Amino acid sequence: MRFNEIAEATNGMVLTNYSNDEIKSLIIDSRKPFISRDALFFAIAGEHHDSHDFLEDQYAKGVRNFVVQKEVKIGSEANIILVDNTIKALQQIAAKHRSLFKLPVIAITGSNGKTITKEWLFTCLSPFYNIVRSPKSFNSQVGVPLSVWGIDKAHNMAIFEAGISQSNEMQNLERVIQPTFGIFTNLGAAHDQGFVSREQKLSEKALLFENVNTVIFNGDDNHIYSKFSIKGFCWGYNDRCDLIIINVDSSSKGVLVQLQLEKATFELKLPFTDSASFENMMHCIATMLYFKIGKEDIQERINKLLPVNMRLELKKAKGNSYIIDDTYNNDLGGLQRAIEFLIAQQQKSRKVVILSDILQSGLPDEVLYNQVFEKLQAAHVELVIGIGSDISGYQSLCKQPAYFYNSADEFLDQMGQLDLNESVILIKGARVFGLERVVKSLEEKIHGTVLKINLDALTNNLNFYRSKLESKTKIMAMVKAFSYGSGSFEIANLMQFHRVDYLGVAYADEGVRLRENGIHLPIMVMNPSPDSFESIYKNNLEPEIYNLGLLDKYLQFLNGREGSIHLKIETGMKRLGFDEDEIDNLIERLQSNENLSVKSIFSHLAGADDGAHQQFSEQQADKFKRLSSKLIAAIKEKPILHLLNSPGILRYPQFHFDMVRLGIGLYGVEAGKTEDQKLLQPISELTTIISQLRTVKKGETVGYGRKGVAKKDIVVATIAIGYADGFSRAFSQGKGFVWVNGQRASVIGNVCMDMTMIDVTDINVEVGDQVEIFGNNISIIELADAIDTIPYEILTNVSQRVKRVYFTE
Ligand SMILES: *Cc1c(COP(=O)(O)O)cnc(C)c1O
Predict the structure, then answer these.
(1) pLDDT at position 4, please?
(2) Residues 629-635: contacts with CB within 8 Å, 24+ apart?
(3) What was the pLDDT predicted at 517?
(4) What pLDDT does residue 252 have?
(5) Structure confidence by residue, pLDDT tens digits, 621-658
(6) Are the C-beta atoms of 190 and 373 separated by less than 8 Å?
(7) What is the pLDDT of residue 329?
(8) pLDDT of residue 519
(9) Which of 68-72, 316-320, 471-475 has the lowest mean pLDDT?
(10) Which residues lie across from 247 on neighbouring strands?
(11) d(C-alpha 661, C-alpha 44), whole Å
């Protein structure tokens, strides 16, 4: 489509029109670092982030085509369309694009399993069709139009997923996807908040299938059956189903399922045994049968299914590097997303991409690799390593420094000659290339215990607190103590990406580390000691000043140079802060030292997490208001005022002032123990492995001090975590518990320095199995309660020798 056609499809008003460009890509994220001339930028106005504010930057980066919802002026060569709502316009354009193609379009919706079903269906159908599908889990109001935009002439089938979180969203997605065939995965509790009832949620989701001929679903579910039986092709145990499950025989190796279709019975072997995978596989089998694929082919395709890992994992690598592990598959959409994640990692400026051939793109190879290399060039990748004969064949198109190899083995042989230090390395390849071996050889070795940090959960939690603030209220993200044990600049980097206003650290060293790793946000240092003034000053950090003595020392150090400071006032915590009787002297110092710039004035509540202290907290707030007003009246500047930590943000909306200091909530814990805990996601998962198993006879003892006594014959597993890793010794003798293969297991005997023994008597385990210490099954709050401490301590105790892995879904 050309610019003029786009303007027509959106019914928008053309504000300026320099040239009628052909539009090839659609962009919605102003942080996207690389842009091509033929991109169309949609300025989306979110509650906290309005990309209309960044249009000049986009223009400077080379964007010339814009869709906006506010009247704006950009550069002289800009083409601008003004519409009422840019998201709606994006959907209209995608809908127009969709209507240009006639092909079977499978839409997948439901509560769980959409992405896996889509990926598996792609594996099942790809030998028979040229398929375009949603990248990763692009299923939202903006993700769906971006997916649909990917259809082109070469495709003869499309598979898109659609997800909604509230009422009135599905119709839009239906208009964009225009599906001809549907799969309804299941109806669970996900996103229940957005709907009045389950019924309403089902009805809303069903709107996606208004115009399709056939819907595949689980016919044993009465709700779903009543909704879709008319146009259903359903599977299940019930006789009313089209595809009837006669018998299921499970063993540890897999599942043998006996099925009946139109009176004929047949058997299939399924590679996964868990119930969620079973459901996903049944959807795929029913779809293949519907599309008349033969039973032998079905069996062969099912054998090819692999666990879907949709995560992009950031791991520490040798040579002070990081790797982004994306070795599950390789397609253009996914490549784009992986490169974005690569660019977002500002810890190291040197970016390296290791990339395999891209299979089944539906594009002619030359066009394909031209696009691939353009993306790498636009992203300023400093070194490209191509693996496979196709990509090697087009190496002349690559503008970046590059090396090419025919196979992963060839590359592994010669890898030692390349400099892969001090870099962020994206490793992306289709499964058949086996690039996971490259990941293995670059990865730092671990001793089995890993803290995994979910960057999406972190974003979710940040957004949750943002939703509680007025848009003008600033956020200081507290990243002290290695971001509450979760890392340091990795978390700060994400906060910077999401444009929080300030960072808070405890010590100057922590701030210096952040500066060394590309963090340019303002940083407040809460415990500045005089011997750190020099590094504070040099690294543009801002000290908290909490009494006259410290102030005088800092003034002396500055010796007339300019400096930014934060003033802490004591209102009841009795920790750090100017006392009331120091305020007059403080004012006098500030008035006579104009080189000092007071960035903010703040205080801290002693009991924000507990309603019992409400009256005391209100008194603290009153005192804060009184003393800060007095200070502000006496100085020329208008400093930022802030009082609240995470639990305070939720309990005292009336005391948000200009900024809040968000700590533990970001890391997934509502310290005030309110219902809001449900809306936060745990950001970290601490896991280890089983090192050894043994039977212990009745009466024998386990561990130091012989504190664990077997009351009957039991099975004991030794796991690779101890108090030196942060698994407190207080968990000894049954106080602590871990999660193994779907069940809880108690600690037996005393926790040792590097190891712990657990009782796994009735649990099916093997050496090497993963053990969760905390995460999705055992919460940090529960663990803290078990040993009478607070979640803060559990989080920050995880020792630095435990390897951190960061991932995004
Ligand atoms: C650590 C800290 C916070 C953050 O507290 P949370 O309860 O983790 O949100 C806020 N303010 C100050 C002064 C702190 O030291």
Answers:
(1) 93
(2) 630/583, 630/587, 631/567, 631/583, 631/586, 631/587, 631/590, 631/598, 631/601, 632/601, 634/587, 634/590, 634/591, 635/587, 635/590, 635/591, 635/598
(3) 81
(4) 59
(5) 999 999 999 999 999 889 999 999 999 999 999 999 99
(6) no
(7) 67
(8) 87
(9) 316-320
(10) 258
(11) 27
β-pair type (502-505, 684-696): unpaired
State the average pLDDT for the chain.
Answer: 91
CATH class of the domain whose range is 452-679: alpha beta
Q: What does the pLDDT look like over 223-248, one tens digit per residue?
A: 999 999 999 999 999 999 999 999 99
Give the confidence band of 48 by pLDDT, cuts at 50, 70, 90.
low
Residues 6+ apart with CB under 8 A from 102: none
Per DSSP (E only), the strands in 408-473 are 424-428, 450-454
User: What six digits make up the tokens of 27?
Assistant: 């962009």
Cα dihedral value 524, 525, 530, 532, nearest 10: -100
- Percentage of residues in the chain having pLDDT higher than 90: 71
Q: Per-domain residue ranges for the chain?
A: 3-91, 101-303, 312-444, 452-679, 684-808
Rounded distance, CA 160 to CA 104, Å? 11
> Is 387:408 a contact under the CB 8 Å cutoff?
yes
CA of 656 to the centre of ligand 1 (A): 14
Query: ∠ at Cα 187 (183, 190), nearest 5°?
Result: 115
Q: Which CATH number describes the domain made up of 101-303?
A: 3.40.1190.10
The answer to whether the predicted template modeling score (pTM) of the entire model surpasses 0.70 is: no
Which of 464, 475, 478, 546 has most ligand 1 atoms within 8 Å of CB, for mutation?
A: 478
The torsion region of residue 388 among left (phi > 0), alpha (psi -120 to 50) and beta comes to left
The model's confidence at residue 36, banded by pLDDT at 50, 70 and 90, is low
Run of H or E residues at 375: helix 365-378
Concerning whether 290 is annotated as a catalytic residue, the answer is no
Residue 405 annotated as catalytic: no
Ligand 1 atom nearest to 609, measured from its CA:
7
DSSP 418: S
Top CATH class, 3-91: alpha beta
Locate the ligand 1 atom nearest the alpha carbon of residue 649 and give its number. 9
Query: What is the distance in A from the centroid of ligand 1 to the CA of 640?
Result: 17
Cα–Cα distance, 574 to 605 (Å, whole number)? 10
Q: What is the CATH number of domain 312-444?
A: 3.90.190.20
pLDDT of 258 higher than 90: yes
Give, as one character, the DSSP assignment of residue 675.
G
Please give the average per-residue pLDDT across 664-680, as a whole number. 93
Q: Is there a contact between 753 and 799 (Cβ–Cβ < 8 Å)?
A: no
SS3 of residue 250 by DSSP: strand
Contact predicate 351/423, CB 8 Å = yes
- Joined together, the tokens standing for residue 803 give 């390897």
**Domain 684-808, CATH number (from 3.40.47.40, 2.120.10.30, 2.40.37.10, 1.10.8.80):** 2.40.37.10
Q: Is the confidence at residue 761, as pLDDT, over 60?
A: yes
The tally of CA atoms less than 13 A away on the side-chain side of residue 4 is: 3
Identify the bridge partners of residue 737 per DSSP, sorted by sequence position: 746
Q: Once rounded to an integer, what is the mean pLDDT over residues 673-691?
A: 92
Q: Is residue 574 packed enough to be buried (19+ CB in 10 Å), middle (13-18) or exposed (0-12)?
A: exposed
Q: Residues with beta carbon inside 6 Å of ligand 1?
A: 478, 480, 526, 604, 645-646, 661-665, 671
Q: How far is the CA of 593 from the centre of ligand 1 (A)?
A: 30
Q: How far is the CA of 458 from the centre of ligand 1 (A)?
A: 17
State the DSSP H helix or E strand holding residue 628, giving kind and residue range, or none if neither: helix 614-634
pLDDT of residue 275: 78
126: CB partners within 8 A, 6+ apart: 360
Res 325 pLDDT > 90: no
**Residue 686 contacts residue 454 (beta carbons within 8 Å):** no
Rounded alpha-carbon distances, angstroms, from residue 21 to 4, 54, 377, 715? 8, 22, 22, 70
Q: What is the pLDDT of residues 97-114, one digit of tens each?
A: 999 999 999 999 998 889
